[in-house]
Design brief:
- There is one protein chain.
- By secondary structure, the chain is an alpha/beta fold.
- The strands form three sheets. The chain has a nine-stranded mixed beta sheet with strand order 7-8-6-5-4-3-2-1-9, sandwiched between helices.
- The two termini are 29 Å apart.
C-alpha cells in the first residue's frame, strides 16, 4: 500500500507562525493545477504496481480549490493509479471556507475525511496568529460539516501560544471535547526562523512563551484526552477507537508515499525526493517534462535513525523484532545498550516493544537522538 500527497500552495493570508511553502496570490492557480495533472502523468508509471490506500490534500489551504479543479485532480488520480475502494481521502480545510456549497463540492469529488485547521476557539488567539477565521466560524464549520454528512473529521489545536493561560487552554480543549470528534491533533507552538512571529518576538512586540508552559499544557491535554476516551497514539495525535489517521500512520510506519506539487516529499522505501519550493520553478520544470526534485538514497544509518525517531513517537513504539530484521543484530544490540543508559522512567519494554511512558513523551526527540547512530560505525 502507498499514500498519495498533493500540496496545494495557496492561502488567503499568511499565519504569522507558519513556515510551510505557500502563496497568498491565486494568480498561478490555473497553471499550477495543470502542472499537478502533468506531474501525476509523469509519475504514474513508477507507481502503477502500488495500491493507493490514502490520498491527502495538504498545503497551503486546499479548501481554496474550486470544485471543478478538485474533481479534475481526483479524476486524473483514479485514471492513472490503482486507488483502493475504501481509500481514506483527506482534505485540509480552514473554517472560513466550509460553506454548504464547498462541502457539497468536496463530497462530489470523493473527499471522505476533513482536517480542519481550528488552532483555537478564542478570537484573541486567532487574531494574534493572523488566522482568517473567527471563533464563531470554528464552532459553526464542524456542526455544518456533520450536517452535510462528514463524520470522519479531525481538527488541529495549538498550545503554548503567546498569552494563552492554562485556563484558556483548558477551555479550548473543553470545547473540542464537547464536539466529540473522532480524531484531533494538538501541537506545541514552534517559533520558526524567518516567520513574522519570530520577528515579533525578537523585536519585543510579542513576549516569548516561557519554557515551562508547553510541558504543563501538554500534561493538561493528556489528562483531558484520556478522560474523554481518546487514545494518545502518536505524540501529537489522539483518536477514538478505529479512527487513527491512516495517511499519517503510513508515514510513521515507513510505508511508501508519492508527493505531488511544489515542496512535496516522496519516499519509495530506499530513496527520498522533494520538489522545489517555488511555484514558478515547479511549473516551468514540469511543463518541460523535468522533475523539479532533489533526492537522496537513504543509507543504513539514516533509515535506522528515522525508524527510531518515528516509532518512538507512536503508542506502538519500537518493535525489537522489526529493528533486528530491518537493521541486523549489531544495531539491535547497539539500540538496547544505549537504551539502558537512558532515564528508566522515560520508557518501558512491553513484550517486544519499547514505548515511551507519559513522562518520556515530553522528551521523545531527545531520547531518539540519544539512540541515533551519529558516526559511520554501522555504514
Amino acid at each position: 500500500m502507498a499514500g498519495l500527497y498533493l500540496h496545494i500552495p495557496f492561502c488567503k493570508q499568511a499565519c504569522n507562525y507558519c513556515d510551510f511553502h505557500f502563496s497568498t496570490s491565486l494568480g498561478q492557480l490555473e497553471t499550477l493545477t495543470a502542472a499537478l495533472h502533468l506531474e501525476l502523468e509523469l509519475r504514474a508509471a513508477e507507481w502503477n504496481a502500488e495500491n493507493i490506500s490514502t490520498i491527502y490534500f495538504g498545503g497551503g489551504t486546499p479548501s481554496l480549490l474550486p470544485g471543478e479543479k478538485l474533481n479534475g485532480i481526483m479524476e486524473t488520480i483514479h485514471r492513472l493509479f490503482r486507488v483502493e475502494a475504501n481509500a481514506e481521502v483527506t482534505l485540509e480545510a480552514n473554517p472560513d471556507d466550509l460553506s454548504i456549497g464547498k462541502l457539497n463540492e468536496f463530497k462530489e469529488a470523493g473527499i471522505n475525511r476533513l482536517s480542519i485547521g481550528i488552532q483555537s476557539f478564542r478570537d484573541d488567539d486567532l487574531q494574534r496568529m493572523n488566522r482568517a477565521h473567527s471563533a464563531r466560524e470554528a464552532l459553526h464549520c464542524i456542526r455544518l460539516a456533520r450536517e452535510m454528512g462528514f463524520e470522519n473529521l479531525t481538527a488541529d489545536l495549538i498550545y503554548a501560544l503567546p498569552e494563552l493561560t492554562d485556563a484558556d487552554w483548558v477551555a479550548n480543549v473543553d470545547q473540542l471535547m464537547a464536539m466529540q470528534l473522532p480524531h484531533f491533533s494538538a501541537y506545541g507552538l514552534t517559533v520558526e526562523e524567518k516567520t513574522p512571529l519570530e520577528a515579533y518576538i525578537r523585536k519585543g512586540k510579542i513576549a516569548a512563551v516561557p519554557d515551562e508552559v508547553a510541558p504543563r499544557q501538554f500534561e493538561l491535554l493528556m489528562d483531558m484526552a484520556a478522560s474523554h476516551g481518546y487514545e494518545h497514539y502518536e505524540i501529537s495525535n489522539f483518536a477514538k477507537l478505529g479512527h487513527q489517521a491512516k495517511h499519517n500512520s503510513n508515514y510513521w510506519n515507513g510505508s511508501k508515499y508519492l508527493g505531488i506539487g511544489p515542496s512535496a516529499h516522496s519516499f519509495d522505501g530506499e530513496k527520498r525526493w522533494w520538489n522545489v519550493s517555488n511555484n514558478s520553478k515547479y511549473i516551468k520544470s514540469i511543463q518541460a517534462g523535468i522533475f523539479p526534485a532533489e533526492s537522496e538514497i537513504l543509507d543504513l544509518r539514516t533509515r535506522y535513525n528515522e525508524y527510531v525517531l518515528t516509532s518512538l513517537r507512536t503508542a506502538k513504539g519500537v518493535s525489537l523484532t522489526t529493528l533486528e530484521q530491518k537493521f541486523g543484530t549489531e544495531l539491535h544490540r547497539f539500540f538496547l545498550n544505549v537504551l539502558l543508559e537512558c532515564e528508566p522512567l522515560w520508557y518501558r519494554i512491553l513484550g517486544d516493544s519499547v514505548v515511551l511512558t507519559r513522562a518520556g513523551k515530553h522528551f521523545a526527540d531527545r531520547i531518539a537522538s540519544d539512540l541515533f547512530i551519529l558516526g559511520d560505525d554501522f555504514i
